[in-house]
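User: I'm curious what two different proteins look like when written out as structure tokens. Can you demonstrate?

Assistant: Sure. I'll show them one after the other, since each token string lines up with its own sequence. Here's the first protein:
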Amino acid sequence: RDRDVVLAAVAQNGMVLEFADESLARDRDVVLAAVAQNGMALEFTDDSLARAHDVVLAAVGQDVDAVAWADESLLRDRDFLISLFPTVADFENAIQWGHESVQLDHQVVLAAVQANGMALQFVDESFWNDREIVLAAVAEDGMALEFADVSLKRDRVYHFRNDRLRLLAKGCSRKALRAGARRERHSQLCADYADERLKRDREIVLAAIASNGLSSQYADESLWRDREIFLAAVARDGDGWAWRHADESLKRDREVVLAAVTQNGGALLDADESLKRDREVVLAAVTQHGGALEAADESLNRDREVVLTAVAQHGDALEYADPELKADLDVVMAAVQQNGHALEFTDVTLKRDRGVVLAAVAQNGAALKFADKSLKRDREFALAAVARNRRALWRVALWASYSTSASSRRPPAAR
């Protein structure tokens, strides 16, 4: 019953509130301290504080499962739910924790999808065709556009925690839950989604893409030829999905291709042949990913600046350089410093260059296997290589082992 003792105790372990005097379970400061340390301590609070917005929000902020111990009246409280959603934004089905009556409140639904766009799949069917709701959902998470399709149905399985919340939403009291009236079962929920026509709505699709470029895959196919939408998609799509599904006419559009390769250099592979000869386009591509040099026109594989840019970003791009540049010391050094493995693609003359090989080994000890044989017999070089990168030691040891076995197989000298 000693307030100071209990305060100190719950600050260390909120769950000891269970053993505090009932008068202290009604003390706001004690309860706030307890739920701040462990949100699940809400279970042991007085019912009056289990109805207090600030106490419950503090508990849920510490442990989202604590919402199951909130007074059932809060799950009917519009203002509480609107305040709750940002706190539990990671839980897309949070709207279903509320009582069925408030799940039909437009402002509650709007708050839910603004906190987590993917909540769109869990709202009441009457909102699936609500343009304002869908627009808010895709603005928060573009991938919510997936659910703007009446033909889609998904089964969702929820664990015990969610089942408790649904019991509360239906009016099951906290006391009943404590008494063991919890049903440990999974709920099978099937959700239909927003109307197919919304996938053809340019404003909604553009809002979705602005949030997540990958959402373009859920847009109606008629919009894949829309230049503005496509430009917005490729600018936000690091994965390259939008580009792979682009209309062929867009792959001949210089501005579109430039935007695509700036985001994903590999997009150059599918660009029109005329643009693979465009120096600015190819430079943008190899700047983003040096490996795009493979797709460049042969004329640009001889361009020193283009090749230098490519190998500085991705050393192995040296494989696609013109043979003359594979013998260029500056180009080769840039490549092996980025990836020692690029030594494999250098001109044979530079595989004998101690400086080049040591630079490659410093980046990747295994690069030693691509060095010229003359260096493999050089003891001083072997020591220098190991000094640069200890991982080269196993390669040096392999050389020594091979040399020893080879010499043992030599026929004896004639007398």
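Here's a second, unrelated protein for contrast:
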Amino acid sequence: ATANVVRGVNRIFEVVLRTAVEERRRNNSLGNYPQQLGHISWTAEPRIRDYLAQQIIETHRILNFLVGIDNESAASELEPRTALMLETQMYCFADTLLSGYREELDCELSPGQVEEEEGENYNDSDANMLAETLRARYPALRQELILRFSSLVEPASRRLGEWAQVGESALAHAYHLAETYKDFDTLAKLCDSRSDDAKLRGYLVRYGKQFAQTLFRWYYDNDKYYKLFTVAEEYHPILEEFLRPHPEYAWIHALRCSNYSRAASATYELALDESSSLFARRALMSVGKLAWLAEQKEQSPISASQTDWAGMPGPLYHAKINEYLYVASFQTRLGAQIADSTGDTSIDNVYTDVPMSPEQMIRRFIAHDQQTNPRNFFMALDIFKNSQQLRSRSANQALLQEIWFAAFDANEWAALIHALQHAQVSDREVGNRIQDSVLYHLAVANPTLYQPTLLDAIEARFTGHDADVKRHLSSILHTCHALISRRLQQNEQTTH
């Protein structure tokens, strides 16, 4: 009974609205109304819109009840034709409501036209506010109305006989409204949820870039990333543009298109941003290196060197990626070695879970509590040598000084100074002690990184001591330099 009452009320609405809309369109076609806000008929009046929207809600409520009835005896008392007629009426109302909004949005809103409609004095800001309100309301209303049709499809499809036609009609109307009023979000959702690839291809051809971008956004927002990489080749440029702010997927598409420099740039950016997984950083850097190598086979060396690689020339990119990989591999090996030697697997996690910068690793090795193990300084210098491209020249100089300063401080010179002050040690013994120092062994093993100018920088740090201690420290330092120079000369002669 309720369904028949609603159908009857809808029929009255339908006749009145159809007459009004036809009259409006006839006058527009004859040029009787200006193409401005003033031509909008009374169907665009807010109260009429509210009544129409309420009637759509009531009709949908009845339809939702009818198509969802599980009791066959109750369902048999209701004609499926009644539900079909209600669904068609609901479509008529939705189309009328949306067309009114669209026509109003297509008009240029001016204060004079708003005044004519509202019967009050409005200024420019009032007109702009009304326009903004309409623009904000329209997309949400459009999606809400179309959703009312698509929500009927599944429950209706479970019914037998003529009831299934209600679902088919609702689906057709949902598509038609979305097409007419260009609700690309809903079109993408409808097609994807029903795996209707044929319709998707048709919409891509029909609407082009705008629909493609909406479809890609739908895939991205709904965790269907794999579908981004199945689009036809002619849409690859649009997909590339869409993925530009999403390097986590851009590199996959770039590899698929054999755009190795773009893939390398994306993985490089991702690897540097990766702060929680050393494994992920190494994997991304490795992909970047493979992309660089693949590009070398595709291009001549000159052409490849001119390609932009993460904002730098190809050779510099290759050097940096190798150094990042070296540091990451070093960190992994170190963690495993410490864990094996101590039996403490938690140490392995400290070194292998979270990526560390080369500077962090170096400073950890030369920290005061680590200076008792000379091997740490050799590892620090090894990391330094293999990560110089990752820092500026001034940063390299400052870090190298930091290592040499720590190397000099690693030995306890106070006992030797005390012995010198009391003439308790011979020159030979002084030489032997210096040759056992970390600074001496480090310099002899790394002659290219040992710079005599470092003596002045180290000596400048002695200012906090009294004159006698400072004199002895300077003497030890210069003796150390002399011994280092002599040993390096001997090594060079032996080599020749």
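A detail about the second structure: The two ends are 110 Å apart (CA to CA).
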